[in-house]
Amino acid sequence: MKGDQPMHSLYSSKDTVTTEKVLFIDFDQCLSEETVGKLSSIAGDKEVIIDKGNPDELKQVQYIFFLIEDYRVETLRFIEDRLEELKETNTYSLIMTAAQPTKSLFPYFMQDLNGIVSLPFFLENGRRVLNSLDEFGIFLEQKLHCDLVTLIQHKKLKDRPIKRLKLRVEDVQYILTENEKKVLQHILDGHNNRKIAELMFLAPSTVSTVISHLLKKLGANDRTDAMVQIIRKGWVDALR
Fold it and tell me: DSSP code of 59?
């Protein structure tokens, strides 16, 4: 451990170096002073560090919670980059959502994520979460278990031909406008701009503008890249 190296923090529960540190990266700035105090109390003898940016040295910490309020593209990319940095380390990394988490976060388990939990759940069961990580190396909030079982079942059916790719609207409700969601679904259905304009009773120029905004939000170069991005993010269900 490199415990004697300084780490930028906005709040620390201890004035002296402790053997274990819990870092909450408050990317969307969800935490109040009262909540910070509760987190410190839950952690017990562990040192709690709150950071709103990108700490200089992540490897000093035993537990890292990436606290997010919504699933914006830039937020998820930030998490992807940090998880890549933490590979081959002994750090437990979890995504913590301000509200109830969704199954769209499951793909991050492929990047050595150790769990998904909501802030309200952690405030009630934080010690249980930390103990589970120490014992099993993973924690998944109970409400997500059923979704995970369903996902595994879908994986077993992957050899069946895909009839349609369906956008999971609930996963992009805070990211895309209603028109952008509808246009994206039509793109997934394989329609060109003219057909989309007919189906939505819009001018072709309006559809082109919507697609331009859509690509910018997704950080995609073209329609094909946009499809790749949303599939990679887990925002699409394959109907078989």
Answer: G
**pLDDT, position 155:** 64
Upper half-sphere CA count for residue 162 (Cβ side, 13 Å): 11
166 and 216 assigned to the same domain: yes
CA angle, 182 as apex, 108 and 240 as ends, to 5°?
60
Q: What is the reported pLDDT for 105?
A: 83
Q: How many residues does the chain have?
A: 240
Assign residue 203 the CATH number of its domain. 1.10.10.10
Q: What is the pTM of this model?
A: 0.58
Residue 16: which of 53, 43, 41, 46 has the closest Cα? 46
